[in-house]
Amino acid sequence: MLNIHNLQKSYGENDVLKGISTEIKKGEVVAIIGPSGSGKSTFLRCMNLMEMPTGGEISFKNQPLTDRALKDAQINELRENIGMVFQQFNLFPHLTVLENIILAPIKRNKQTPEEAIKTAEQLLETVGLADKIDAFPNNLSGGQQQRVAIARALAMNPEVMLFDEPTSALDPEMVKEVLLVIQDLVESDMTIVIVTHEMNFAKEVATRVLFIDEGVVVEEGTPNQIFNHPQHERTKVFLDKID
Ligand code: ADP
Ligand code: MG
């Protein structure tokens, strides 16, 4: 699904990603863990070209995203297949829940307004917020806003979903409702990449875990390998600290 080869990203003198290579296969649930500032968000943002890599290649379903010959329109079309959910929800505050969800599908000509509304209603049902369809984001709890943000990303019918610490900005009592929605997605065989500090969640749902530190993948493996039998000192130190 996503092929990442020797990915590099620098901001001026700051080399944030120093050559990351990995492959995300269809149906995989890949958890990315690592210390703050290690480049996890940058990695995720490069995957859908919210950030332009400074080196290396990324391809999506064998189509190179990092090919300089690609036109903006082609890049946008590829990106539509990659949904993203952020720590801070990023809903449009002046739009209702429904308007937030139908905006992109209509604008990008993915669906007619009638179809988009129908899809939005179904998605809100799925995330348990059918009764909030006309609410404004500011009148929702953090957990509800994040569930709307997930519904909004799903409205584009993506083939991959990227989550960047989707529960880190939430009060503890709201973490579970969001993780349950993501768990449902896992069970629907969605391909998922999730940056998370929820180690128990990563243990339960991930098919693979990447430990990133200082812009490199230090270690990757099954949850059992990474959490119970880490091979590298840096992985051990990190896991000891968060316990
Ligand atoms: P993480 O998500 O693992 O906490 P980030 O990817 O957010 O790490 O950040 C990694 C490094 O990249 C940090 O040193 C951060 O300051 C830097 N960085 C991230 N985004 C930008 C940006 N837009 N401009 C300049 N530096 C950035
Ligand atoms: Mg981050």
UniProtKB/TrEMBL annotation:
A GO-annotated cellular component: plasma membrane
Topology in membrane: Peripheral membrane protein
SUPFAM superfamilies according to UniProt: P-loop containing nucleoside triphosphate hydrolases
GO molecular function: ABC-type amino acid transporter activity; ATP binding; ATP hydrolysis activity
CDD domains: ABC_HisP_GlnQ
InterPro entries the record matches: AAA+_ATPase (IPR003593), ABC_ATPase_HisP-typ (IPR030679), ABC_transporter-like_ATP-bd (IPR003439), ABC_transporter-like_CS (IPR017871), MetN_ABC_transporter-like (IPR050086), P-loop_NTPase (IPR027417)
Keywords: Amino-acid transport, ATP-binding, Cell membrane, Membrane, Nucleotide-binding, Transport
Keyword match Cell inner membrane: no
Pfam families: ABC_tran (PF00005)
Domain ABC transporter as annotated: residue spans: 2-239
Subcellular location: Cell membrane
Family stated for the protein in its record: Belongs to the ABC transporter superfamily.
Protein name: Polar amino acid transport system ATP-binding protein
Organism: Atopostipes suicloacalis DSM 15692
